[in-house]
């Protein structure tokens, strides 16, 4: 890992990926005031990692995060669970590709491996040597600056001698052709490894469990395919002296059978074994289905071969597990779902209303008047889409990491809606389930949802009619959420427009104060309703607050919402997660401490301040934001907005129990609004006298 990398961000990504809480503890501070040295350490799952030292807290935090990253991602054995849970970018921090391959080769082929290590002392530094004895064969020795490096180089020599001159190197290469060939060789090698391991399924249960590291095999498979892999605890029971643990594997949000064991390791091993068996079974089924379809097409009188449409230079069927569609354009190869497709397949919706969903969702099309299945070289692949059938006048509204939002008119209702499209996961259903239970004038209204195999691809360079549907991965599904259509101007835009004004003029702008108070009151009414449903929004910020066509405030984006269940350990773990927008997070939300609905109150205090105070630039906001978060509001603000500053300070209390409930804030704002209206009326009466 390079020193210039942001290790704090890496731990944050690790926390988001695994759901583990990452917290920082201050160990101490030494030295005089003008030259202090700070010490911090990272704590994950109750385990403290080596201390980080720095001249300021930021530097110490970065060094502490670096030490934790090195422990989490560089340990060859103890950190296997952590490294597998990390994102693909973090997994690449591990360099033991050849050593892992050699271990897997040993397990898959039932041969023993024995490293022989020596150290030679030089004039400057020691050189470590290592060679492997695989079975009865001794392989060449290799050297390195560390034992780990020497072991890896020795494993590389074993790999090269066994597999030829190809390597597993994944470093950048200036020659793109070389990189491409290397990548292809790696894929072939990975496939060969998996094929070598498949015979393990024929072993008896006792033999396979005792001699096979299924956890390592699962991690290797997921790393090859780019899948996410997490071991989650289902439950634990039994007395303390003979406990029973239950674990399951979750791969790409798909849950596999639960494994039981007398220890966590045994339970995980059994869960990995069940997942491995199911993965290989599904892979074999996919290959059988695809090969059967290929045989059917080959024997069909309407196939390309029999119709004479294949020229002499056409490709002949290969032994691979895939169907090849012949076409004058570049060849499109539909691979089995177990293999990630590399070529996008465009969909065509001609005559879509004349075909059933079953016909459209398959790659086998029916000609009119002919019930036999055919594969034509020129006819595009069709796909059923409720979105394009039921909606028109489609326009793109927003795009982000979450997915995309479109404005679309429902044909039958002749009414516009917002349709949000996200990749389907179990967690994405959470937003839908929550929205379906909420019915309030200050919350974006949910209407319906459905799942499709493809996502709607928007071409911004032309009109909506040229948009197409495609998907690069047949295992991926997409969730379409139909919601109330709001104005494209969010509260973030409203605040930015107000901040364009001259600061002195802004202080005299009674209209901004009135409008800001009205907006704040509507937001707190919506939040009061959310809290009454025993929910926490967790991501309140101006960008997630919208307006209806009539100007009513609407709270949206419930992707991070979570219920409050005090007697549920899983829910408590969720309510320690580092989730939300950091600049609007409450202190306990940032620090991974168990939090409740009061985190929403803290975020509202910050939003309330922005509604009234003119902050012309991002630079000025960054300079004052930490002070605002610590209740240190600008003096001029406190002088001009006396009541508002008192309410805001109460909402920004460091201790959550000292922050008021939403109902209390609502009553205070209503009282303040009545006072302003009475004052305004009194001033008007004085002017008329």
TrEMBL record:
Pfam families: dsrm, Pkinase
MF GO annotations: ATP binding; double-stranded RNA binding; eukaryotic translation initiation factor 2alpha kinase activity
Protein kinase domain sequence ranges: 391-675
Gene3D superfamilies on file: 3.30.160.20, Phosphorylase Kinase, domain 1 (3.30.200.20), Transferase(Phosphotransferase) domain 1 (1.10.510.10)
Enzyme class: transferase
Any one Gene Ontology cellular component term annotated for this protein: nucleus
SUPFAM superfamilies per record: dsRNA-binding domain-like, Protein kinase-like (PK-like)
E.C. numbers: 2.7.11.1
PROSITE patterns referenced in this protein's UniProt entry, alphabetically: DS_RBD, PROTEIN_KINASE_DOM, PROTEIN_KINASE_ST
Family statement: Belongs to the protein kinase superfamily. Ser/Thr protein kinase family. GCN2 subfamily.
Name of the molecule in the record: non-specific serine/threonine protein kinase
């Amino acid at each position: 890992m390079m020193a210039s990398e942001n290790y704090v961000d890496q731990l944050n990504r690790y926390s988001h990926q695994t759901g583990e809480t990452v917290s920082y503890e201050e160990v101490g501070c030494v030295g005089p005031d003008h030259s202090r040295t700070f010490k911090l350490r990272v704590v994950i799952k109750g385990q403290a990692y080596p201390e980080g030292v720095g001249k300021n807290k930021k530097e110490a935090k970065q060094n502490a995060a670096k030490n934790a990253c090195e422990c989490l991602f560089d340990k060859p054995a103890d950190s296997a669970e952590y490294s597998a849970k990390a994102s693909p970018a973090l997994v690449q921090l591990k360099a033991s590709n050849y050593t892992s391959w050699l271990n897997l080769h040993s397990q898959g082929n039932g041969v023993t491996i024995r490293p022989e290590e020596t150290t030679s002392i030089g004039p400057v530094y020691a050189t470590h040597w290592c060679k492997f004895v695989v079975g009865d064969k001794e392989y060449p020795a290799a050297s390195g600056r560390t034992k780990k490096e020497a072991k890896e180089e020795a494993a590389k020599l074993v790999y090269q001698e066994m597999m030829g001159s190809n390597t597993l190197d994944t470093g950048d290469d200036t020659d793109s052709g070389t990189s491409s060939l290397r990548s292809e060789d790696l894929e072939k090698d990975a496939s060969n490894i998996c094929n070598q391991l498949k015979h393990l399924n024929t072993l008896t249960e006792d033999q396979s469990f005792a001699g096979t590291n299924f956890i390592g095999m699962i991690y290797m498979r997921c790393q090859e395919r780019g899948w996410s892999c997490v071991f989650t605890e289902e439950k634990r029971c039994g007395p303390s002296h003979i406990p029973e643990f239950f674990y399951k594997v979750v791969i790409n949000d798909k849950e596999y059978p639960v494994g039981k064991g007398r220890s966590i390791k045994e339970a995980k091993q059994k869960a990995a074994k069940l997942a491995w068996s199911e993965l290989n079974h599904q892979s074999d089924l996919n290959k059988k289905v695809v090969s059967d379809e290929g045989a059917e097409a080959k024997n069909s009188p309407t196939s390309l071969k029999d119709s004479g449409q294949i020229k002499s230079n056409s490709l002949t069927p290969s032994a691979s597990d895939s169907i090849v569609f012949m076409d004058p354009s570049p060849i499109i190869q539909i691979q089995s779902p177990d293999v990630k497709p590399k070529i996008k397949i465009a969909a065509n919706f001609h005559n879509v209303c004349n075909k059933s969903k079953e016909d459209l969702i398959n790659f086998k099309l029916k000609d009119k008047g002919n019930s036999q299945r055919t594969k034509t070289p020129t006819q595009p692949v069709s796909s059923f889409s409720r979105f394009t059938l039921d909606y028109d006048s489609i326009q793109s509204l927003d795009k982000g990491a979450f997915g995309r939002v479109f404005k679309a008119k429902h044909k039958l209702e002749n009414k516009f809606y917002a349709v949000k499209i996200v990749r389907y996961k179990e967690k994405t259903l959470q937003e839908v389930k929550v929205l379906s239970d909420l019915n309030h004038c200050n919350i974006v209204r949910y209407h319906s949802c459905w799942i499709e195999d493809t996502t709607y691809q928007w071409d911004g360079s032309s009109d909506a009619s040229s948009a197409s549907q495609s998907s690069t991965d047949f295992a991926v599904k997409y969730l379409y959420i139909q919601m109330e259509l709001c104005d494209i101007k969010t509260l973030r835009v409203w605040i930015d427009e107000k901040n364009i004004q001259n600061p002195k003029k802004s202080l005299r702008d009674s209209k901004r104060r009135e409008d800001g108070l009205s907006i704040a009151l509507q937001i707190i009414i919506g939040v009061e309703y959310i809290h009454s449903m025993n929910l926490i929004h967790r991501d309140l910020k101006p960008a997630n607050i919208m307006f209806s066509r009539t100007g009513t405030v609407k709270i949206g984006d419930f992707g991070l919402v979570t219920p409050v269940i005090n007697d549920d350990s899983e829910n408590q773990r969720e309510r320690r997660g580092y989730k939300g927008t950091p600049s609007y997070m409450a202190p306990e939300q940032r620090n991974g401490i168990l939090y409740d609905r009061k985190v929403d109150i803290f975020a509202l205090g910050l939003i309330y301040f922005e509604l009234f105070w003119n902050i012309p630039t991002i630079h000025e906001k960054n300079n004052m934001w930490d002070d605002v978060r610590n209740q240190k509001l600008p003096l001029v603000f406190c002088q001009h907005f006396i009541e508002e500053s008192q309410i805001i300070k109460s909402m920004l209390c460091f201790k959550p129990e000292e922050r008021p409930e939403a109902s209390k804030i609502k009553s205070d704002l209503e009282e303040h609004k009545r006072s302003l209206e009475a004052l305004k009326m009194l001033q008007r009466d004085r002017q008329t006298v």
